[in-house]
Write a structure and sequence with these properties.
Elements: E1 20-21, E2 25-33, E3 37-44, E4 50-57, H1 58-63, H2 67-78, E5 88-93, E6 97-103, H3 110-117, H4 122-141, E7 154-156, E8 162-164, H5 203-220, H6 230-239, H7 250-259, H8 270-273, H9 277-280, H10 285-291, E9 309-314, E10 334-339, H11 343-356, E11 364-367, E12 370-372, E13 381-390, E14 393-401, H12 414-421, E15 427-429
Antiparallel strand pairs: 1-2, 2-3, 3-4, 4-6, 5-6, 7-8, 9-13, 10-14, 10-15, 11-12, 13-14
Helix pairs in contact: 4-5, 4-10, 5-7
Amino acid sequence: MDQRATVPNPPPAAKRHHDVLLGRYELGRLLGRGNFAKVYLARSLSDGAAVAVKVLDKPDTTDTGMTRSVLTEVAAMRCLSHPNILKLHEVMATRSKIFLVMEHAPGGDLLARVARRGRLPEHAARRYFQQLVSALHYSHARGVAHRDVKPQNLLLDRDGNLKVSDFGLAALPEQLRDGRLHTACGTPAYTAPEVVRRKGYDGAKADAWSCGVILFVLLAGALPFHDANLALMYRKIHRREYEFPPWVSSQARRLLSRLLDPNPETRITIAALMEHPWLKRSLSLDSQLGNMANLPPMTARDELAPAMNAFDIISLSSGLDLSGLFDEAKTKKEKMFTSTQSIDKIMEQIEKTGEKLGCTVERRKASGVRIAVGLGWWESVLSVEVSAVASPLLLVEMRLEGGDGDNGGRRFSWDDMKAELGDIVFAWQDSGDS
C-alpha cells in the first residue's frame, strides 16, 4: 500500500518522540537495528496502544536483494494468527520507506533471558518450549516453515509468553520444488544438517532440529554443538558428539536425543512433539512457577512472611451457607489456591469475603506463626495458612477445623468462598481429605 504522505527520516533520539508516522503512530525510542532495518517503539494515536514499527529503506532493500525477504515476511505473518506468533497489525509505505507495524513484545528475547540466568529450570524451559512447538505446529499446518528458529527470534510479551518473530527466511508453499526446499539459510548453530547439503529438505523437520538446539540451550545454558570451524561442527553433529549436564532430567535427555537426530527421516516431528509426554506432563504447581517468570518480585514487606509459615485464620459467624464445600460430611475439609498478590491483599480479600457473606470477622494472634479467629458460637474454625513457594507465588491453604461447619442445618459453602475471592486466586489446587 503506497501512502503519498511525506515521512522524514527517523529524527535524532532526543526528538524521536515527536515524530508522527503518517498521522497514525507516534514514534518513540529505538528498540533495535539490523543490517537492513530499524525497529522503533511507537504509540497508536487511535487507542494509545504500544506497537513496534519496523522501518525499512526501499532503495537499500532493492539494492541488497532483500525485497523477496520482506515480501515473504509480510505474506507469512499475514496468514498466521496464533497467540505465540508475533502479530503483524498493518503494512504502510511511502516512496522511500516501508513500515511494518507489529505487536510490541516488551520482555525482550529469549536469548537475553537465558544469558541473564545461565540456564532455565526445567519447568520454565518446558513452558517456553510448549509455546514454541504450538506456534510451529500451527505454522506448518498452514504451509509455512520458519527456517530461522533461534532464541534471538523468540520474543516475550509483558506476561512472559513467547512470541515467534522474524519470518524473513520463512518458506511458503509456493517455494517448494518436488515437495522439498533447496535454499540453504538460517544460523549455523541452529540449522539442521540436511539444510547445508543442498539436496532438498523438509522445512518442518528442519524447524524440529532447531527446536532441539533451543531446548538444549534452555536446559543446559550452552549450545550442544559449537565450533568456529563449521566443517568440524557438522562432523560433531553427525557423530552426535554432545554431552548433557548432570542436572538435565532423563526424560528431557531422551526427548533431546530424538530432536538432535541428524537423520531427518527418524527425527521426531513437530506433530509428534505435540503429543510427547514431556510436553503434556501435568505440572500443577510446577507449571505455575514457570508462569511466574515475568511477574514482579515480592516487596520487602511481603517477604517478611516466613516461608511455609501459617499466619492468619478467619472466623465466620452463623450467617454463612457453607454447602458447596462438602458434598457429604466426610468429603474434603481443605482447599488450596495459589496467588501472586501480597499477603496483605490476600487477607484483606478474605476479610471482605466474610463480611460480604454476612459473617463476623476478627483476627487475633494465637502464636508467633499463626493468627486465629473463631466461628462465633460454632465449634469450627476456618484456618488460612500462607506459604511462600517462590517469589512472587504464594500458596494459600484453607482448612475447616473442629466440628462439621453445621449451623442449624446450614453448611459451609466453598463455592461462595471461591466466587468471592475472585482475582486474588491464581489457580485452585487439588487437596486431600482432612
